[in-house]
Amino acid sequence: MDQPMKLNEFLSQHAVFTVDELDRFLSARGSGKPNTRKSLLTYYRKQGRIIPVRRGLYATVPLGGNPASSPVDPYLVAARLTADAVLAYHTALEFHGKAYSVYTRLYYVSTSKSLPFKFQAHEFMRAPVPHPIRLKGKEMFGVTSLKRSGVELRVTNLERTFVDVLDRPDLTGSLEEIWRSLESVEFFNLDQVIEYVLLLENATTAAKVGFFLQQHKKTLMVEDVHLNPLKKMRPRQPHYFIRSKRKGCQWVKDWNLLVPAEILNKSWGEVL
Fold it and tell me: How far, in Å, CA of 117 to CA of 196, rounded?
């Protein structure tokens, strides 16, 4: 039987795969009939070489591995949940090795709706592409593509991630998590940071980014040419840094922001 041999070639290159990817592989080799794909998937599931992740999505079990206990790379799962999935927010920080903490929840952005679900020890959550970015057709601005275990994966770069986590802190974690994570990044392409902020057209986000950059002006080599466009975008009335966190805030005049004292004082630094 040569069909399993054909799929062995495919599995060796795809740690996680969609049914559509398998169909393209089989069609290129003259075996693109739905019944062929169905029989192959059934055969390999019985052999313990693949396990279902979600409808239309499978993971490959390494040779000699136990299908009941073989861990599946959660980044690869998130990257295949929709056709345009991009690892983002705290998940992007983790992927780049800049997150202060490791989470079991993974976030990806996509224009396609997808329900949250759990697989193995992880939870996967889809976040919408920011509306202004989608309107401008800039969904892939600041997105890096690479291959991991044979699977093409897209992730927001550090510049976009920096802005995104301040734009949607609810998808990143506590203020301490955000600050400690961002402070571990030694360099940003500040021109790209500013360009992305301008694309978002959000006055509060512009102020938050400007505030962070001003706080780290020396270490990140920030100049007035970077801060001035952000100051032009800052809100006209004072805005809360975190809408849900209104107690214990101080007004920062430069950015018209009401900033929690724990950020200004880095009060979490006292607890190790």
Answer: 30
Look at residue 149 in the predicted model and tell me its pLDDT: 85
SS3 159: helix
C-alpha distances (whole Å) from 53 to each of 5, 58, 81 are 23, 5, 10
Shared domain for 176 and 257, answered yes or no, is yes
Give me the residues of the chain with pLDDT under 70, please.
1-6, 31-32, 269-272
The pLDDT, as a whole number, for residue 271 is: 43
CA quadruple 245, 172, 268, 255: dihedral sign: negative
Dihedral (C-alpha) 172, 146, 186, 262: value to the nearest 10 degrees? 0
Give the whole-angstrom CA distance, residue 3 versus residue 66: 23
User: Quick one: 155 and 28 in the same domain?
Assistant: no
Please tell me whether residues 54 and 99 are part of one structural domain.
Answer: no
The rounded distance, in Å, linking the Cα atoms of 99 and 181 is 5
**Could you tell me if 127 and 78 are in contact, meaning their C-beta atoms sit under 8 angstroms apart?**
no
